[in-house]
Amino acid sequence: MIGTLAVENYRSLRRLVVALGPLNVVTGANGSGKSSLYRALRLLADSARNGVVAALAREGGLESAMWAGPKKLKGNLGTAGDSPRGIRLGFAAEDFGYAVDLGPPPPTRSMFALDPEIKVEAVWAGPVLRRSAVLAERGGGAIRIQDEWEERRVSPFDSMLSEASSPEVLAIRERVRSWRFYDHLRTDVAAPARAAWVGTRTVVLGHDGGDVAAALQTIREIGDHEAMDRAVERAFPGSRVEIVPAGGRLELTLVQKGLLRPLGVAELSDGTLRYLMWVAALLTPRPPELLVLNEPETSLHPDLVGALAELIVGAAKKSQVIVVTHDRALVAALDEARVLELVKDDGATGVEGQGLLDEPAWHWPKR
């Protein structure tokens, strides 16, 4: 489980170091930095897939994604000191930690001038980076595994997590690659979820929710089908999900009390369909190490918020969960969660009530 998350110089996150628990809620007013924190987590996950440089380039390059305010901060947001120019991302658990430092490339005539370079990476043992605890590090184009530098060079756009093969690096890579994000479960009339889906076992709901019928049927056959039935009954009393085979494809239907026939997926409201997709995502038979949900309350009727909260609390017993939301009812319903209320001061995002002395210990690897 991630105990500490740290971000520096990314959009409004000039300097943010927060402690996390099993269930976490990130909330705050519009423009307070919730989306920036969510995207920072996505960038960390991209590092394990060797995609962080390309992801930043898609945001307009390093200059576009970097903090645009003053170097020094004041008040409860503290100061970031004289950190090098670039974006720094990292996390730590009780057993391992990882950090990456991305900076501008040297002057070049390349047509890929928007690509940042990976300047430094480090993997260490324990929750806090110490020189004696470093297990693997990357400086410039060379990788050192404990006390031996590897001979081969590493391109400035390739992450150490994808290039090195030590047990420690592999452990971090597989851990981060298991992280799962949901932020765009489509329910419009052309949404993939409103079409019949090929009938293959689906232990993980796709990011767009298109395979919801297959995912729910997989839960029915090899997962916690009783929890699925309870979740549907909790939200829609007297209802149940039925998956109908159709020529090798599967179609989602909902049997509701008082109706003479099941409702097909094309007839379901946006909120009903999205809730059923959350059932499939949160009752997955293959829970991830980290599950991140971005505004899961979108298009749900207020009466469904309690049922959604129960699903999230249940998921947090098997995975660490981070929920990004502005819905106060959902925050209140998740009363077991660690709540991070984001606020802005002079354009910089901080956590309400958290000063420098309240932050968990954190050190960045040096360039």
From TrEMBL:
InterPro entries: ATPase_AAA_core, P-loop_NTPase, RecF-like
The entry's keywords: DNA damage, SOS response
Entry coiled-coil feature ranges: none
GO BP field: DNA synthesis involved in DNA repair; double-strand break repair; SOS response
Keyword Isomerase: no
Span of domain ATPase AAA-type core: 23-331
Transmembrane segments: none
GO molecular function: ATP binding; ATP hydrolysis activity
Pfam families: AAA_21 (PF13304)
Protein name as catalogued: AAA family ATPase
UniProt source species: Actinomadura barringtoniae
Species classification: Bacteria, Bacillati, Actinomycetota, Actinomycetes, Streptosporangiales
